[in-house]
Amino acid sequence: MSQQPETKQAKHTNATTTDWQAEITRRRARTTAHLWGAMLVGGAVTILTAYFVATPRLEPREIVTQLAPLIAIWFFMLVWGIWPKMAEHHRATGVISLSYLVGVIILVQSPNSAGGQIWFLMLIPTVFVLSGKRGGIIASMASLLTYGAVTLAHRLGWIVPRPSLVATIVNTIYTNGLLFILALAILTPIFSSLTRSWVKTAQGAQTANRQLAAQLESQAQAYHQLQTQSTLLEATNQIIQAISGTLSFETLPAQVVRQVEQALDDWDIYHVGLFLLSTENADDGNDRAVLKAATSEAGRLAVETGYGMEVNTESPIGKAIIRRHASILSAEECQQTSQLGALALPHTRSEIVLPLQSGEEVIGVLDIHSSKENAFSTENLVLFQALAHQVATAIRNAQLFSRTNALLEEVQDIQRRYLGEAWRELLSRQPIQAISSSSLDDLHQDPSIQAMRRQALTKGETIVHSNDLGKASEPTKNTGLHKNGNGVASMIMPLKLRGQVIGTITVCDPRSRRRWTEAEINMAETIAEQTALTIENLRLLEETQRRAAQERLVSEIAGQVRASLNPDTVLKTTIRELGRALGAEVASIEIMPPPQERPNGSHSNGNGNTGMKSEQS
User: Fold this and answer.
1) What is the pTM of this model?
2) What pLDDT sits at residue 184?
């Protein structure tokens, strides 16, 4: 991932370098063409001028002989310049070489004139332009060495100049005008190219500045957007952390709107409303969106009055529920819709309506109002919807928790009633009044202990009484403190089974200055719990055995009945065994024929005969 930006940067740099190299090549080609044209025109003018000026004084053959080197160079330059498919650097090399040769000829023929010196001086910048830095340095060294060598050769007499009329004319033309023209021909494209380069560079810099400004603005917007999204994510995290631990459906809506308003403080939030769907008090059975909690004053008043609205497309709330997607309202739209019944929300400048969707079900709407225009943008819509999804999940969990608790309480209530009935039935069969470990029956009849026992039965809590309340000792968790006439230290523990109290255990100590310790109370409560479980297990065992005996008895009676093929024997066996099993003294069976239907629709019992079998048990 980190190499991708570097690769793009390298490609951009290579492309920029290639563009500049192509531009330099094009400009060198134009400069070469200008210089080539100027030398051809200047050479032709020089040759023709020298010929016509020398004609009155010399023979044409002699003039041509003296002009032969220049004519040969001119034709060679012409052919070299128009030769097809020649590379530009080869063409430039030829122009430079021929220019160097012309300078040498001028310098050899007229070593003391300024023409050769000026020619070599003009050649050096030309080579710098056409061949670059390396070529310019080589040209500078070659010009310096050539000028020095020719000058030294003249001084030593190795080269003896032979002034001729044509050479004088050519030198005069070079000195008086042609070099100036050639200088213009060379420098004009150079300075023109530089000027165009400066202009293009300035335009490029201006374009680059505009692009840079646009990029900076785009980056600033992206940074602002990123910062906004980061703030929104942090706010969402704060909201979820605050409400995730709340499972009370009654308090959760108020906590949600309060946390949303606090966490989204950067958006200038001044009203947050939480609507939940309800089918109660709805016309024609349609759903209604009922406002459950709000943060503004108008919203709280609307909650107190039970404000709600029909779910339809006429309101933003209904649209969000039906279409299942969030919507952002502008300032103009808010002016038309920002009210809760008769209560207006005048400070709303922007609004976002978020459906609360849990799975495939929409359970409500989170309505957020801001006093700042354009506070909500479509770029952040996904994050706001994620916030709404988390809120919906928390609300759904609270609803499920509330329903589960209600069902659990219902099951526990049924279980308590069942246990109560079961123990009443058991006590009706096997009465158990009280079991005492000593002869302290009079204490059990004490009004104070009876009151403590009733309190333990009612509250389902341990009741402790100490007869040494003024002494500082280990603290105890006294649920109730009573003084009885005997001053007996008492402790009464309820026998509880799944929340149902089935009895009590009373412990008394008649000794004076007795105070129950925390360890003693805990031990007594543990014993009471284990005792209640043991008693319940014994009751269940007794009930199981009783039902097994009943099933066995039924099976035996049914076996005896099925063993006989005589109806009279079957009937006698049935009433005998049934009476014996139920402890009844008399049992009888009466068989009657089915009624007959008369023509008028009434029923008749036949002839009134009945069959009856009875037996004394």
Assistant:
1) 0.49
2) 64
